[in-house]
Design goal:
Length: 198
């Protein structure tokens, strides 16, 4: 499983770093059992010209690659945050759209707006942060936006509720590599995993 996590200026720290932690812990646990490369995580900058992005709160994150050079992934995760500017960047939206055939596509929080803008979310049942659900439904009326769930699955596309819900979704996604992994990773992280979804 090769996971790409898109990062951009004003990305919500936990939206990106929460799943990153889940996947990196899963990789460590997998490495003890089998191939240490069974799960690999790559941070992808939304900006072709720079690897460093400034997340919400001023945290600087350095990507492994950019949208100009990113390899194919088996799982693409698009976090949220303040997405207004990146939604208007045609380079980013076109890149996400080009990755629509990635075997698994997931969003955390307002990352759902980026997937919708790229045409990946069109008529599915989805979720996002509770504060943004009405706006998502209004802007993309073909979507059925639901609340009260940590994450929602529609075929190979997953969306999660706000911020910390991305950890629950990421734990679920590790189970695609190994059904026993989510429980082990949650225990290693000392995290009370909420496994419910749709």
């Amino acid at each position: 499983m090769h996971i790409g996590i898109l990062i951009f200026d004003e990305v919500e720290v936990l939206d990106a770093c929460g799943p990153f932690e889940v996947f990196s812990v899963a990789a460590r646990l997998q490495g003890k059992d089998r191939d240490p490369e069974a799960i690999k995580v790559t941070l992808v900058s939304a900006y072709p010209e720079r690897a460093v992005v400034v997340a919400r709160g001023g945290l600087k994150l350095t990507a492994d690659t950019t949208i100009a050079d990113a390899p194919p992934f088996s799982l693409l995760l698009v976090p949220g945050g303040v997405t207004a500017e990146v939604e208007r960047d045609p380079r980013v939206i076109e890149w996400i759209a080009e990755r629509s055939s990635t075997p698994i596509v997931a969003s955390v929080c307002t990352g759902a707006f980026l997937l919708a803008e790229a045409g990946i979310l069109t008529n599915q049942t989805v979720t996002t942060h509770w504060e943004d659900q009405a706006e998502l439904a209004a802007r993309y009326p073909g979507l059925t936006v639901v609340g009260g769930l940590r994450w929602v699955q529609q075929g190979r596309i997953f969306t999660s509720a706000g911020i910390s819900a991305g950890i629950d979704l990421a734990l679920h996604l590790t189970g695609l590599a190994d059904p026993g992994l989510p429980t082990r990773v949650a225990r290693q992280m000392d995290y009370a995993w909420q496994a419910e979804g749709e």
